[in-house]
Write a structure and sequence with these properties.
Elements: H1 14-39, E1 44-48, E2 54-58, H2 63-112, H3 122-190, H4 192-198, H5 209-242
Antiparallel strand pairs: 1-2
């Protein structure tokens, strides 16, 4: 007569239960190692004793990688099952949810524009006013920030343009100076006397000695000629008076 099948149930004796746990745990870890080697499988085994002590076994890939792979696989399986079984119901619920959200947004938009306020209570109006005030503060703050950035950028451009203008003015003055020097050099090369003309001439004192002597000599000669001319006339008149 063969041995009957033993019914599995909790061992009430603590000592026997601990001994059985140690034996079965060792056999379980051994079987997990054997299946991983024989079948080239990735195995992860986690066992907690009744006192909460952890016993684990994993192949070379590591416990964390195996658990992460399990999570991805189980999540994909759950999504696939949920899509196959509840796709129509989920789409209907999603449509209702989105429709209600759109209606609420439209109502809030009209309230922000000051429309359809007859059915709004005093507390809701106060809340709406506070929201508008907060929105205006944010808008003004952003506007002031943009204006300040724009002014700073314009000032920076103005400074750069001013510096560029100063540089151009300096270059123009230097070029004008060079042009004047070249023109002077060209004049000197074509007309050698121009160099002495352009140079400041010393002022010499004017001596009129020669001119005065010549003037006195010419006056004396004119007197002599006049005397010679008038002498016959005087003698003629004197002879007439004597007769």
């Amino acid at each position: 007569m063969g041995r009957g099948r033993v019914q599995l149930k909790r061992i009430e004796n603590k000592i026997n239960r601990q001994v059985t746990f140690s034996k079965r745990r060792a056999g379980l870890l051994k079987k997990a190692h054997e299946i991983s080697v024989l079948c080239d499988a990735e195995v992860a085994l986690i066992v907690f004793s009744h006192k909460g002590k952890l016993f684990e076994y994993s192949t070379d890939s590591g416990m964390e990688k195996i658990l992460e792979r399990y999570e991805r696989y189980s999540y994909a399986e759950r999504q696939l099952v949920a899509t196959d079984t509840d796709s129509e119901g989920n789409w209907a619920l999603e449509y209702k949810r989105l429709k209600a959200k759109v209606e609420l947004l439209e109502i809030n938009h009209r309230h922000y524009l000051g429309e359809d306020l007859e059915s709004v209570s005093l507390k809701e109006l106060q809340s709406l006013e506070q929201q508008l005030d907060a929105s205006l503060k944010h808008i003004r703050s952003r506007k002031n920030q943009l204006m300040y950035e724009s002014i700073s950028e314009l000032q920076r451009k103005e400074k750069a343009i001013q510096e560029h203008n100063n540089l151009l003015e300096k270059q123009i003055k230097e070029k004008e100076k060079v042009v004047v020097q070249h023109s002077l050099w060209n004049q000197q090369s074509h007309d050698p006397s121009a160099s002495s003309f352009l140079l400041p001439q010393p002022v010499l004192p004017c001596l009129n000695i020669g001119s005065t002597y010549q003037e006195d000599a010419s006056d004396q000669a004119r007197r002599n000629e006049l005397d010679l001319t008038l002498e016959p006339i005087y003698s003629c008149h004197l002879g007439c008076f004597a007769a």
